[in-house]
Amino acid sequence: MRQDTRYRVQDTRYRIQDTRSRAQDPGQQGSRSASWILHLASCILILSYAVWFGYLSVLRHETLNSRGYDLGNVDQAVWNTAHGRVLQFTNWIGKSDDFRYPSRLAMHFEPIYLLIAPLYWIWSDVRLLLILQAVVVALGGLAIYRLALDALGRPWPAIAMVAAFLLYAPLQWALLDDFHAVTLVGGLVPFAFWALRRRRWGWFTLLVILIMSTKEDMPLLVGMMGLYALIWERERSAGLVTIAAAAAWFIVAVFVIIPHYTLGGQSQYLDRYADVLGPGGLTISSLPTLVVAMIRTLLSWETVRYMAGLLWPMAFTPIAGWPTLLIATPSIALNLLSNNPTQHVLGRHYVAPIAPVVAVAAVMGAAWLSRWLDRRTPWPRERWVGGLAGLVLICSLIAQYQGGFTPLAPDYRPPERTDHHRLLRRFLAQIPPDASVSTQQNLNPHLSQRERITIIPYDVSGEYLLLDVTTYPGYNYRNMHAWLKENVVERPGYGVIDAADGYVLLRRGAEPRPLPDAFFDFARTSEANPQYPAVVDFGDAVRFLGFDILPRRYGEPFYALYFQALRPLKRDYAITLYLADERYQLRGATEIPQMTLVWYPTSRWQPGETIRVIADTFTWWSGELSEFSVGMGILDGSDAWDVGARLRPQIRESQLAPRLLGDGTILHLMRFRQGKRRPAPIPEYRDRLPERVPHQVGARMGDLIELVGYRVETPKVQPGETVRVTLYWRALTTSPPARTVFVHLIDEQGTLRGQQDNPPVFGTQPLPLWTTGDEVRDPYAFQVAADAPPGSYAIAVGLYDPATGARLPVTGPDGTPLGDHILLENAVRVR
Question: Which helix (H) or strand (E) is 453 found in, with range?
Fold first, then answer.
């Protein structure tokens, strides 16, 4: 039996040297050439990653998706440092009054910015930060390659681990979450671990200093690295020195430097841990409490869920490398202990220090597993190394497909740069570089290289005020746009000096004047080519032309709604979206005005204009509904639930199945089915059925409609349970008279044991809305009587006049009279 030895660096070097000596043999030249090809391939992967994510980060910024918190914060602090004002920034003015000095040191201890600042002497541009971040993280792939080559012994498994590292979606999410110094750890940690394994203590010292310089809590990670060196690498001196240095750094940063710059005596971010630390915050005496809470958190089910999301893209191999994985435990615990919910997800920069540890642990875990399997199976270790590396690569590809940010992810679309984004340059050019500015979150990083800049709404005191109402973050949360209109655009002492397409620039002391007509261009479109066209008149006031679904990768979609005024309007109508359940019963409404209507209300609309309204002010949560629908109403008033205030829609044309909710006052837009990450739209076109009909029928109800077929979704039920059946109809004429459908459950003795009567589609699609050739999916759901005996049940289907109760005659496909209903035999079995 082979001896079980740990992988020590000295042994690794011997094997590498031995492999190279064997490669001198002429018979090994082909293998050597293949290795060089793989080395080159790893470099190409890393370079491609740096270019791609550098490009995406810059594109995200240029399409107004970056934020003042934190790209603008960091850019201003680094720019000021480059100009001799060390880490000075002003973005938190108004948001927090707890700063003793306007310094970023009151937020975080990140001395690495002192090393980045000289780069601004060469190229003073916020994009430098984004490109630097992508390059540093990408270079971490080189360290992963060297680690994997040492631990796994072969180039192609090593390159598979590099690919898995680069495909790791949580690290990609961190890269596209603005710029944060802590994200640089994604590239630094693999190099530090490689230096530790190789006993390159000079490099290790430099790298751990850089890691600790990225954020005040990173000494905890470095301390765990020292613990790893002490216990698993048996490097007593290096381990103890690393732990002591990390502890000293942490204490000075958290208890000395940050409190010096705040009036409250400690970092405001510690409020996120108030439930654990209590009102006194973090003190030396409360550290044991924090440690106990961290341990308790790490043993919770939430941690299991969190770790599963982190580990499965690496095929759970980091579990086998658990000593390495322990290095990330402080960061994991701090994320899960926080009362900030964004730290509990994998889609923010908070995962940046964890991601590289997971990748390193995957390498070490694959190495350990291959040795373990080598001793217990007939297959050699080399085969297991290849298989495990291949498994990790496959899992990382699947995870990338599901949630990554490369062309391998089919549902990811990079943001598109438009004329609106390019128009920003015109407004930026009018602001002097030495002027103070107040602007919104996503414009802040475009103006942050100045001594004073603040963020609206926290502070509106700049010499210049700049807004872009079309991209203002928050989706009109709490009707923020009404506040902006009153307190920024109409601010006393300021005047508009330029405005166009939703941008407005004001200067203190400028002559007040109304917004020019060009400002409202964002609400008007020259051509309306909606994804789902329609012609629906709401009263004699507004015509609806259709809508686009604006999908979001996570969460419910937004909508672009297209309208025209039918006449000059003197009133401001509200356009409201409604949430309905699978039975089309209303469950929620957007009670906050849509942003477009705040700035360009219907009273300003001119006949002939096409208005595009973005609907995004959702106040509901559809997650509890497996299926739901979204509808739209137009109100002469502000009460979304006042049926009498809604203008009644008249459907003239509709590509989709025409349906009316809310007593005929709300136009149905789209039906959705919940997916794993977001709802999936189910468009139901009026001229074709949305799904295959399993049971064909072909019976005609008078001369009005034909029952094409049916589907029984619950063929076996118990008394008291719900029978679900779907009928499929085809219209034989246009605008048939109103009729009610009955669906009756009949037992073997002919007794009625359950029923549902209503116009088609729960009353939302009555026959007068149909035109010849319409095909309609009509669901029914009703309970079986509690005393229903077991047996085989039939379903009786027919139509009747709701005024008289008279049923329509039914004929079979061959014209045979069937009476006043059709009987679907043996449709349901009651157990």
Answer: strand 453-455
Residue 205 backbone dihedrals phi, psi, to 5 degrees: -60, -45
119: exposed, middle or buried (C-beta count within 10 Å: 0-12, 13-18, 19+)? middle
The answer to whether the bond into 70 is cis (omega within 30° of 0) is yes
CA 636, CA 634: separation in Å to the nearest integer? 7
Distance (Å, whole) CA 343 – CA 353? 12
CA 748 to chain centroid:
53
Q: How far is CA 92 from CA 129, 273, 417, 669, in A?
A: 20, 21, 29, 42
Q: How far apart are CA 709 and CA 706, in angstroms?
A: 9
Confidence tier at 286 by pLDDT (50, 70, 90): confident
Q: pLDDT tens for residues 91-141?
A: 988 887 777 788 999 889 999 999 999 999 999 999 999 999 999 999 999
Is residue 165's pLDDT more than 70?
Answer: yes
Which pLDDT tens digit goes with each residue over 342-369?
Answer: 888 888 899 999 999 999 999 999 999 9
Contact 446, 424 (CB under 8 A): yes
pLDDT tens per residue, range 611-627: 999 998 887 888 889 99
Beta strands 437-439 and 464-468: pairing type? parallel
CA distance 83 to 661: 62
User: What is the four-CA torsion angle of 108, 114, 119, 121, rounded to 10 degrees?
Assistant: 110
Token pair recorded at residue 592: 């906050």
What pLDDT, on a 0 to 100 scale, did the predictor assign at position 34? 63
Q: Pairing between strand 705-712 and 695-701?
A: antiparallel
Residues recorded for the chain: 831
Mean pLDDT score of the chain, rounded to an integer?
91
Q: Is 716 exposed, middle or buried (0-12, 13-18, 19+ CB in 10 A)?
A: exposed
Look up residue 39 and give its two tokens.
Answer: 């080395």
Q: Does 176 score more than 80 pLDDT?
A: yes
Residue 137 three-state SS:
helix
DSSP H helical segments within 168-253, as ranges? 169-175, 185-198, 201-212, 218-231, 236-252
CA pair distance 364, 483, nearest whole angstrom: 55
Q: What Å distances lie between residue 135 and 140, 174, 422, CA to CA?
A: 9, 13, 26
For the segment 72-83, the average pLDDT, to the nearest whole number, is 97
pLDDT tens by residue, 219-262: 999 999 999 999 999 999 999 999 999 999 999 999 999 999 98
- Say how far apart CA 629 and CA 583 lie, in whole Å: 9
Virtual CA dihedral for 131, 134, 139, 145, nearest 10 degrees?
A: -150
For residues 314 and 310, give the distance between their C-alpha atoms in angstroms, rounded to a whole number: 8
Sheet holding 503-508, edge to edge: 453-455, 437-439, 464-468, 503-508, 494-500
What one-character DSSP code corresponds to residue 30? Answer: H
Residue-wise pLDDT for 761-791, tens only, equals 999 999 999 999 999 999 999 999 999 999 9
Q: How far apart are the first and last CA of the chain?
A: 61
Average pLDDT over residues 642-663: 95
Rounded-to-integer distance, Cα 540 and Cα 565, Å: 9
Q: Nearest-CA neighbor of 329 among 293, 275, 362, 285?
A: 293
Decide: residue 59, CB within 10 A, 0-12 exposed, 13-18 middle, 19+ buried: middle
**317 phi and psi, to 5 degrees?**
-65, -25
Percent of residues, the chain, with pLDDT higher than 90: 78
Q: Are 219 and 253 in contact (CB under 8 A)?
A: yes
Provide the b/e sequence for 588-600 (b: ≥16 CB within 10 Å).
bbbebbbbbbbbb
> With contact defined as beta carbons under 8 Å apart, do 248 and 226 qualify?
no
